[in-house]
Structures are given as structure tokens and as C-alpha cells.
Amino acid sequence: MRGASRIGQNTAFMGAGTLLVSLFLIVQMKIFTVALSPQDYGLLLALRALSGLVTAAAVIGLPQVAMRFLPQLEVRRERGPLLRFSGALLGLMVLSTAAVMLLAWLARPMLMAKFNLDIVGDEFFVLTLSLAASLGLYELAMSLLQGIRRMGWVALSQVLFQGALSIHFFFIRDELTPGLALWLYTIYTLVPGIGLLIIFPFLLPSAGKAAQPLRFDRKEFFSYWRMGLLLRWMVLASLDLDRYVLSFFAGMEMISFFNIPARMMGVSRRFLQASITALQTEVSRLHEERRDHDLPARLALFMRGQVSLSFWMAGALFLAAKPLILMVSTPDYLAGLPLFALLLWTLPLSSLSSPIEGVFRGLDGLSRVLVGNILWTLGYFGSLPFLVPKLGLMGLGLAQVGAMTLQAGWMIASGRRRGLLENPAALSVSMAWGAAPVALAITLAMLLPGGETLAPSTLGVVLGLATLALGVLWIVRGQHLFTSDEKIWLLGRVGKMGLRRAMARILRVEVSA
């Protein structure tokens, strides 16, 4: 039994899809900041975050279960168990969603306690619950297709959904309100979720018979599910929950000013996460094929690539921070420029831990991932009440950087204890090489006159980005980041021969036909 690797094409699909989705999210931010006042935009952000909170309760960790165990059934070509398992997950989530919706309705006075109920009435809460139910269905549908390693369909659904939604927002921008935006989010989430569920059975492999026993039993399944449920709640904290929490002790205007740099960091992390999503399902496949010994080398490769890419993205975002903020919002939101610069450090910190998390999620290491997320949550939300009243927006940034440092330290220590990080010193040297072009580009850009403390001049932006691009090419073409064997392995994951040859010329390696 040995299944074909889809990590290359899945990474390409998810990466391309994420890039397009990111552009649509930027368009939506621009529309909201122009069409809505900071107070109304903050209200919309808080209610969307509340819908995410309800969704986390409704899905009860089932999407993570699908991502973990479906690849092992898929590689064995067990079509019948795949259909029954997926149907059971869907049925269980429908029952859970109904129960959570009822409980949320009964608890609405507490959940909406800090909102002005004369303005935000029950109709807003109904829209929030409707969005939560749609998000839960879409999340499970995506995880089912990701579990059978058909991520091209997931990427396509996200692009179509966000693209159509952005166009709709644009044409009704003059009539846009928080309530109307919530309603459209609900519709445009529900439709692709149903669509993915319809095509799911047609993408399953034809029936086959595995030669070896399955590498998980009921005890492992329920143990993973229990940990996955807890982890889903912790992961929620790293998304939009802080917009809802801030509504309890900060004004809606601060939520809006915080959201612009925070959302851009979220878009960047989402792009970086594309390869990790593909890595997780491949780890489960390797585990089912009894090839766990390959994991340390794969992890080292992904960590070097992820951290270097995150440094390059952070450098480019720093150089272009001012025009980017003006592109996605209005000049009022330049107040968040110092926060933007501080939050850029969260990209490499996140990329230190996310590949290790991907491996643990693909195996049975959710307890380690859970502890890392608990540390993040305690560090972030525990410090917000102290830092925000004293430092305002910068307090939010310091809280995030501190929390991610705790999480990254824990995940690195966990990876070493599990034997996944075999040569941390060599790994650190390679990642330092990856950061070198960023340091050079920012230094040269800031030396030119005409810039500000955190924003180079227009000429500095151009010079810095050009220097960064040339530096990245030098690092990638040399042996500083990847060895020749690693480059050949990476190129082997590229399906198109023409593209593989073009990339081989860039990387300066020979590939076979």
C-alpha cells in the first residue's frame, strides 16, 4: 500500500486560492472602511467574531477529526467506510448545531450585554446565529474534501465565494449596513458549503482492499476527537475573538483601527498556512504507510521554507506598509501604522510553530498543540486588560507578539522531545540566511531621505522591494536554504513538466523527464 503524494498540487491549489482570496478580502476591507463609519465597522467585526464563537461550539471539533482520519481511509481506498464516516460527521454536526443555536438564543442577554440593545436588537442576533450555522457547514464541508486530499475544489469554492461576495458588496456599497453585510455573509457561505457536500461522493476513490490493518482504533479516535474539540476552541482565540472581547472594554472605533493591520497579518498567515494544510494530510498518509522515519527531514524542509518565506513577506509588507494601508482603507487608519510594524513579527513567530503543529495534527499529538494554543490564549487575553488601557493599540500588538513567542517556544521544545527536530543548529543557520535579504532591503530603503520613522520614501519602497527580490533569488539559487537533493525532491512535487523545468533553471538543478 502506497498512495501518491498530492502535497505539491494541493499546496499549489491552496496557495493560488489563498492569494486570490486575500485580494478579495482586501477589496472588502476597502469597501467597509469607506462605506461604514468606524463605529459601524467595529460593530460588524464584533458580531462576526461572535458568530465564530458560536460556530466553534457547533462544530464540536468534527472538522479536525475529518482532517486527521479521512486521509488514512482514502489512501486505503475504503469507499464504503469513507461515506459512512463522513455521513456520521455531518449528521452529528447538524444535531450539535441545533442544540448550540438554542442555547445561544437563551444566552443572548449575556452574549450581547455590552452592545447598545436599542440599536443592536434581536434581528442582529438572529443574523449572527444564521452566519454561525452557515460557517459551521462550510467548515465541515471543506475539511471533508481536505481529508481526501482534494484541495483544488476547496480553493475554487473559496475564490468563487469571496469573489462573488466582493462584487456584491461593491454594487451595494451605498446601501451597506452591518445587518445587510451579515446576511450576505450567511448566503455566500451557505451556497459553497452545500456545493462541496454535493460533489464530495463523486471525488471518492473507487473501492479497494488494504493489505494491512488500519493504524487507528476507536480509543485513538475518541481521544483525538476530545483533544480536537478543546483545540478548536483554542484556535478560535487566535482568529477574530479578540474583536468581540474588545467590545467589552474598548470602543468600537479602536476595534476598527486594530482590525486593518490585524486582518492583513491574518491574510498573510492564511497564505503561509496553505502548505501546512497540505502537509498535515500527507503526514497522516505517511503514518498509515509506516513511513514515520521520513518525517524529520520533511519537517526541517518545511520549517526552513516557511520561516524564510514569512521573513520575506514581513519585509515586503514593512516596506510597503503606508501605501498598503491607504489602499485597503482611508487615511484615518494610518493611526495603526506603528501597530502594523509590530505585528509583522508575528509572521516568523507563527511560521516557527505551524509546521510542527501540522505534523502533530497529522499524527496523534494534539495534546502538545493544545498546550501551545492554551499558552497563546492565556498570554494574549490575559495581558489585554493590562496593556490596552495603558498603551492602546500598541498594547494589542505587544500582547500578540508575547503570546506567539510563548507558543513558538513550546512547539519547538515539543518537536525536539518527539524527535522531529534532529539538527536545530543547522536549521537556525538556514533560517538566518533566509532573513538576510530582509535586513539588507529594509536598511537600504530607510537610508534614503524623505521617509518617516516606520515608512520609507516612495523611492525607498521601490529600492527595498527590488533588493529583497534579488536577495531572495540569491538565497534560493544557492545552497543556503535548500540542498540540491531537497530542491530535486521539491521539484518532484510539481506536476507540470514545463513548470518543473523552468523552476529547475531558477534553482540551478538538473531534473529527469
SSE string, helices as H and strands as E: HHHHHHHHHHHHHHHHHHHHH
Number of E-state strands: 0
Instruction: Count the DSSP helices.
Output: 21
Going by helix content, strand content and strand pairing, the class is mainly alpha
Spatial gap, N to C terminus = 25 Å
> What shape does the CA trace take?
globular
Mean residue pLDDT: 82
List the helices and strands and how they pair.
Blueprint: H1 7-35, H2 38-59, H3 62-75, H4 79-106, H5 108-111, H6 122-147, H7 151-171, H8 178-199, H9 218-237, H10 241-246, H11 252-288, H12 295-319, H13 321-328, H14 337-343, H15 346-362, H16 366-391, H17 393-417, H18 424-447, H19 458-477, H20 484-492, H21 497-507
Helix pairs in contact: 1-7, 1-11, 2-4, 2-6, 2-8, 2-9, 2-11, 3-4, 3-6, 3-9, 3-11, 4-6, 6-8, 7-8, 9-16, 11-12, 11-14, 11-15, 12-15, 12-18, 12-19, 14-17, 15-17, 16-17, 18-19, 20-21
Summarize the structure.
The chain is globular. It is mainly alpha-helical and 513 residues long.
